[in-house]
Amino acid sequence: MDVLFLSRLQFAAATFFHFLFVPLTLGLSILVAIMETKYARTGEEIYLRMTKFWSKLFLVNFAVGIVTGITLEFQFGTNWSRYSSFVGDIFGSLLAIEATAAFFLESTFIGVWVFGWKKLSAKAHAFVMWLVAFASTLSAIWILTANAWMQHPVGYVLKNGRAELESFADVVFQGFAVLEFIHTASAAYILSAFFVMGISAYHLLKKQHVEFFSKSFRMALVFGLIFSVLEVVEGHLHGSDLAEKQPTKLAAMEAHWQTMTYAPKYLFAWPDQQMEKNSIEIIPIPGVLSLLAKHTPSAEVKGLKDFPKEDRPPVLITYLSFNLMVGLGFYFVLVTLIGWLKRNKLMESPWYLKLMLYSIPLPYIACELGWTVAEVGRQPWIVYGLMKTADAFSPIATSQVLTSLVAFILVYGLLGAVGFYLIIKNAKQGPNPA
């Protein structure tokens, strides 16, 4: 194990752990804002109880996410100093804006919301929750814009051995950043919807607070159905964009080795990176990959063999992560469509409630698979086509990275155990009495 491998492993562990909490913050803040707005408009107590119950879970999740996010950004200076030196003029400015214009706003508004129950009117208090949701989304926009620049660098010039910012507008408004935000935000909203539906299903199966959790379930169901369908549509657009901007990633996602027209999509393949082919190929559907990538079945799609070996990403992990993610995406559409048909007969469908309860972990898995595709599929580049990961790490001792990696795993493991324990405990307790 060398410094590069350990630094990558540490950043991966921190990122994957942090992203267990970020999506729920994004989506649940909006659902809580909707619930509180309904209370402010109708005065019905059940919406106030819904707001307080779901916000309790939101706040626990938010607290753990904040702690893990702050330590994550420090690694750019400690473990990836060469990268920070090379692109700090661009990447650093985006992170600075996120911290000052979004994170501090989000934290301030949460403080006002938590301590403002008896000091603000119902409508003003609900408006503050919308500000929390807005600030959370704004924070995500800047973080994802920074990541999108790593995936597709634009708006820069190379001067004095560094990438320097030339057009801030090109960086912020490029199509890759817009598609990445829509894709990631939609995934967060799906996760939040399944979180609410799963916990609601748990209590409905026990016939507890039936009206309360039926309303919660139906509200999250609409949310989940809309964004599950949007995710599939946007995913197709994102794939087409990758065909132009990251062709090696697209080829790895589909285990596509040979450049050809009428490129097929296999229902299943098992890539063997050493032999430069698929050792298993099941049911090829001619032209489907060409259609997905270039919108016409006769289009030519570049294969991995057209790229130097040193520029190819790990194929097996990229392919499996992508196809599992896609499978889960269609599963989310299916079960939310079934839920829409059964939305008024939930108590008569215990099998469906059990399905939704057991489905709570699936959007978490899908989100982590998505980041695996995005980051592993970009390798060997840390900034696609501009700087390789092997040139970006800090020249520090292996023992230092190993020590910090073990410390991260222990501390994050403890934080995760406490965070999920509190979420599960409060979820099982249910809402306070009327």
From TrEMBL:
GO cellular component terms, A-Z: cytochrome complex; plasma membrane
Keyword Cell membrane among record annotations: yes
Bilayer topology: Multi-pass membrane protein
- The signal sequence is none
List the keywords (alphabetical).
Cell inner membrane, Cell membrane, Electron transport, Heme, Iron, Membrane, Metal-binding, Oxidoreductase, Transmembrane, Transmembrane helix, Transport
Q: Supply one GO BP term.
A: aerobic electron transport chain
Membrane-spanning ranges = 12-36, 57-78, 90-115, 127-150, 186-205, 217-237, 316-340, 352-374, 401-424
According to its UniProt record, this protein's enzyme class is oxidoreductase
Q: What is its EC number?
A: 1.10.3.-
Q: Which InterPro entries match?
A: Cyt-d_ubiquinol_oxidase_su_1 (IPR002585)
Main subcellular localisation: membrane
Protein location? Cell inner membrane
Molecular function via GO: electron transfer activity; heme binding; metal ion binding; oxidoreductase activity, acting on diphenols and related substances as donors, oxygen as acceptor
Q: Which family does it belong to?
A: Belongs to the cytochrome ubiquinol oxidase subunit 1 family.
Q: What is this protein called?
A: Cytochrome bd ubiquinol oxidase subunit 1
- Organism field: uncultured Desulfobacterium sp
Q: What is the lineage of its organism?
A: Bacteria, Pseudomonadati, Thermodesulfobacteriota, Desulfobacteria, Desulfobacterales
